[in-house]
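Hello,

Following up on my earlier ticket. Below are the two sequence lines again, exactly as submitted.
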Amino acid sequence: MSTREAILDAVRGALGHKTVDGAALRREADALLADLPAIRPDLLADGLVEAFIARLVTPKVAATAERIADARELPAAVARYVEARGLPAAIALQPAAVLQALDWSGFDVHDRVAPDETLAVGFARWGIAETGSLVFHSDAETPILANFLPLHHLVMVRASTVLAYLDDYAAATAGQRPPRNVNIITGASGTTDIEGSLVLGAHGPRYLHVVIVGEATDQSAR
Amino acid sequence: MEEATLSFKARAERALADPTLKIAIDRTTGTAERKRAVAMSQFPQFDAARERGKRIKDHVIANLDHYLLEFERNAIASGAKVYWAATAGEASQIVVRLCKEAGAKRVTRVKSMLGEEIGLPHALDEAGIERVETDLAEHIVQLGGDRPSHIVWPSMHRTREQVSEMFKRLHRAPHQEETIEAMVDSARRELRDKFLSADVAISGANFLIADTGATCTVTNEGNAELTTTPPRVHIVTAGIEKLVPSMGHAIAMLRLLVRSATGADVTQYTTFHCGPKQPGDRDGPEEFHIVLVDNGRTRMLREGLKEMLRCIRCGACMNHCVVFRQLGGHVYGGTYPGPMGAVLTPVLDGLEKSRDLPHACTMNGKCQEVCPVAIPLPTLLRGWRDRSWREGLEPASVRFGLGMHAFFALRPGLYRMATAIAIRVMRLFSRGGVVRGMPGLGAWTAYREFPAPAKRSFMEMYKEQENQR
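Thanks for your patience. The regenerated structure is below:
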């Protein structure tokens, strides 16, 4: 008997059952998530984008955020960010069509993120108001390392893709083939490994700046 | 003397005599306790969420065979290879074999308690494969050549002063300034090129998602993704109890896990890894292997410890344990310390070797109170005590003491007389409501005070009241 069979047999022996009805189990599992408002926290504000930003700037998440009306204003927002922090005007630009289409004149732009990259500009598919998180899927437009190597990570997200809860992201993608990586990123990299005190910039970015574009399609949180 | 060969008592005495250790433990557990309390005050739904978390895990455990097969089917469909290991040794051998097949010279590792449990660091070292621990705390443990002492903060037994000294001695470009920020920077510089030049990445999993075949890691440092993206091969080792039906269920568990562990609402990085690099992907491993490990879990299911399979390894029980906070994690001698470790170590290492652990507990119930999946830890510990007694593992002194107690307890008149004498003698030694020293009580009063007994016993007072009626 293979190890696999031995383990499964040991499980079945301990549970004392033979066959299970997969569909009934699925219903039972779904029922455990039927009343989500009772088991998850409240949002920090009524509007989704407002709640998202309020969470982003809490000391726990420690990101910074700003809003712009149109994606075409992103290069100017990056220019302000670079100038305010005295950074070189060189950016690793995520190879996302929505970013590549913008006018980056005045910047030295490259698409491969160096191990000691100072600033990378990225695009997140979703924002999550509950936690102040950004969601990325690995694909041809989204190298995963670009989210982790730079010291400053500046991320654009559309207001219309800010979801209320992590569960809403799970529901939005249920049934689809998952990407290799789903990164849910909340604030900058941090560690509490030396005496429990929080220090930012452990291995990943030390600074996270989120630029929210446009207006939410639905202003209510639920 | 090697710590592993010492008795529990000898290890405990050594830990109690170490003032630096006490400072280190207090700094981390104190912060953890405060932050958790704040997080809970901002999550009034916690009680309901915890009850649900418990039910989610119970549902999975009650149908574990089904979920294991569903996970395996979906993982294979995503391009992963799935392996099954019955024991720690088998699991380590599979990982080492995969590393050798990949021609690995350098392996980067993401902290995983299961990896520690199956002895993976040692197995890789034995196989002559360079092992790079990328979690900051595990990096500190590796530099110090010792063992993790906490499941969330493996290097909590080190003060910042000790970490600073090690980094200065062992890093290529160490920090100049004596701040924790500068030390973290030093580790960032030290590990940067190692992330990018490894041949194989090894991680654990906080959750296995049955309906997609994905594995989930949570970190605050971002070391998991930096570890698992560049190498050609990614190997995941995970206990079979880590399953959840879907991502939605993982999210419900994450809300409990992170608040209980660090007091944050969510970790900085929550990543779902599903199979190898897909067509068009810019980066990622070409091979993705998952090793499902039993190592005592089916035995726990069979032998009345299935509630322990709910454990999501948050560490709250140890942060709130009065015994752990005096001793630290190394004293427990196994992979898992604190209350959850005292339940798990007898399964993993045998009760004969670890019978002291279920006794190193005051039964104050704090661990059960803070457990995010409501594991009745004191009850499970009492179960081990009971079994140790039945199997004749309790030493003669304990059997004699309990025999004496039974002798008096079965003779109420004698019992009353003995307690009446004892409390009067103890009161002779009490000052300001506590006994700080008394013949025969030295083992207790060396580290703590003994509360002075009441003037008279309950039975004496009861009788007096009866007489007044």
